[in-house]
């Protein structure tokens, strides 16, 4: 029979191990996962075409909106600790630019996390048409409202009632 005093060190060790494992980081990878291909070395400028690049690397993560001849392959690794925001630890963006007429590779660039820049977004809000409803108006909704035609609606966004 095991006594409480003898089992206390085992229970404490198990609790400590569980506590340590809860603090282990979670590593996740997103995007284009390159395992045995290095796009900056395997893609030959002036030789490879869009078809051969797609064969070697697969479909791009995204293409440029206004220049379909620019392909992006994005690979990102992030690390998340318990109760903290995830933090990007590694990022590689391979940009492959093709000649417009011949579709042959014109340039291959690789950008890393150090090449990135922080962008401040505009915090201004666009005003919406209409008015703010009280809690009671939101609950009751359309009770007592009638539909108005465009000719009868003289106050858009206001309270719509027939008088």
TrEMBL record:
Organism in which the protein naturally occurs: Asticcacaulis machinosus
Outer membrane protein assembly factor BamE domain location: 41-102
Keywords, in A-Z order: Membrane, Signal
UniProt-annotated stretches for the region Disordered: 144-163
InterPro entries given in the database record: BamE-like, BamE_dom
Transmembrane segments: none
Protein name per the record: Outer membrane protein assembly factor BamE
Signal peptide bounds: 1-24
Entries under PROSITE patterns matching the protein: PROKAR_LIPOPROTEIN
The UniProt record lists the keyword Metal-binding: no
